[in-house]
């Protein structure tokens, strides 16, 4: 089945905006365009429901119902229970709160495994637990390829390890890590698993129930929604960790790791993400229950992205004036492509802008990964990232612009 790109782009108001005409968006890893159903729901909430939710009067009742709808529909797509889904202000904040729960729960001498492939959000908070006597073990990437080898993880696992943290894919390496295999290894050793899915979920929200991790985190503003962090915590772990919310909310799983008041409007608007995935499924004739549709839409997105990504990778690997980070095979990676130019990347990203290419040059909070691969974080990398609403013509435009600028 082929993705109907015209239908897809019709669901994103940004593509009809005069100010954005003639520009190709290749900084999606920093945040995607927002789909129309999310914008519609957010606008309606602010116009009609902007009151304290869950009250008896109609505006309040409807506001609470929309918040519940977002949680239940996203949970169904991800193959988890409704109360296993929490919302917070960002994935970075959600991870920090989780780390404080583990700080209280773990004993000195016990261990957490982190990687140097991660965005700092899923490694820094865990590393800070060393201050309380928690042993931090680093699962290191291959300096040449950026690859995380599961065999190296096996050598780090023992009875002291309580948690293994790693990314579904890195925001600079792009390689898709085998979550099922890694999770099985960690569980066999008696450890829980925390997966940072921020750089993967924009390419198809995964069936977390099938993948098997105990924690999965991603950002709705990178998955066509509002600026929230979405966190799945499976019940066994969520009920074992100390409550980080108000003491009187401790018996509600999705409130245990949300110490601050949630953004009601943005949570309600997240139901628009489910609306959008449903529209894609219906338009392409995909039937089944929510997890079935979610998996099929995931595959539809990935298929389109892979087809567009391979020509870009082929172009980059032929050049001798740059270094492509991560795999050269589009099937094994996300379309988040980081390039080491051997010089400062931001001026090159800036030079692409007059050619109608929106891209970024930075370290993208992946300082440890870049250092491990011999890239100067101060110079950073040129990052070219796209998602399923990108067209073949935009990729061709990108390649032509790179030819001129590089």
UniProtKB/TrEMBL annotation:
UniProt-listed InterPro entries: Aminotrans_V_dom (IPR000192), PyrdxlP-dep_Trfase (IPR015424), PyrdxlP-dep_Trfase_major (IPR015421), PyrdxlP-dep_Trfase_small (IPR015422)
UniProt keyword Transferase present: yes
Sample GO molecular function, one term: transaminase activity
A Pfam family recorded for this sequence: Aminotran_5
Keyword Phosphoprotein: no
Record keywords, A-Z: Aminotransferase, Pyridoxal phosphate, Transferase
Aminotransferase class V domain: residues covered: 25-242, 301-398
Protein's name according to its UniProt entry: Aminotransferase class V-fold PLP-dependent enzyme
């Amino acid at each position: 089945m082929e993705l109907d790109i015209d239908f897809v782009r019709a669901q994103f108001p940004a593509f009809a905006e005069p100010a954005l005409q003639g520009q190709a968006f290749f900084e999606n890893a920093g945040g995607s365009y927002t789909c129309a159903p999310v914008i519609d729901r957010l606008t309606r909430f602010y116009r009609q429901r902007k009151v304290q939710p869950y009250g008896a009067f109609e505006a309040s009742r409807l506001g609470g119902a929309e918040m519940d709808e977002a949680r239940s529909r996203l949970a169904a797509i991800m193959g988890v229970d409704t109360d296993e889904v929490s919302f917070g202000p960002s994935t970075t904040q959600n991870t920090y709160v989780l780390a404080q729960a583990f700080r209280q729960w773990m004993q000195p001498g016990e261990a957490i495994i982190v990687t140097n492939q991660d965005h700092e959000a899923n490694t820094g908070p865990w590393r800070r637990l060393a201050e309380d006597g928690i042993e931090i073990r680093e699962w290191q990437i291959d300096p040449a390829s950026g690859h995380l080898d599961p065999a190296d993880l096996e050598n780090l696992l023992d009875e002291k390890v309580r948690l293994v943290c790693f990314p579904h894919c890195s925001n600079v390496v792009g390689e898709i890590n085998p979550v099922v295999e890694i999770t099985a290894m960690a569980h066999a050793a008696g450890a829980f698993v925390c997966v940072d899915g921020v750089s993967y979920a924009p390419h198809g929200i995964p069936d977390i129930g099938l993948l098997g991790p105990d924690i999965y985190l991603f950002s709705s503003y990178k998955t066509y929604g509002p600026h929230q962090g979405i966190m799945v915590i499976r019940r066994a772990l969520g009920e074992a960790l100390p409550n980080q919310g108000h003491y009187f909310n401790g018996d509600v799983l999705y409130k245990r790791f949300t110490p601050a008041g949630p953004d009601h409007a943005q949570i309600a608007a997240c139901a628009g993400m489910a609306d959008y995935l449903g529209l894609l499924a219906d338009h392409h004739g995909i039937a089944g229950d929510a997890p079935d549709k979610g998996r099929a839409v995931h595959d539809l997105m990935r298929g389109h992205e892979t087809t567009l990504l391979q020509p870009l990778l082929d172009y980059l690997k032929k050049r001798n004036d740059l270094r492509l980070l991560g795999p050269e095979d589009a099937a094994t990676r996300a379309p988040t492509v980081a390039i080491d130019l051997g010089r400062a990347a931001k001026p090159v990203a800036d030079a692409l802008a007059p050619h109608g290419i929106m891209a970024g040059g930075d370290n993208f909070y992946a300082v440890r990964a870049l250092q491990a691969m011999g890239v100067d974080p101060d110079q950073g990398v040129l990052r070219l990232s796209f998602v399923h609403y990108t067209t073949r013509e935009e990729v061709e435009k990108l390649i032509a612009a790179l030819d001129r600028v590089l």
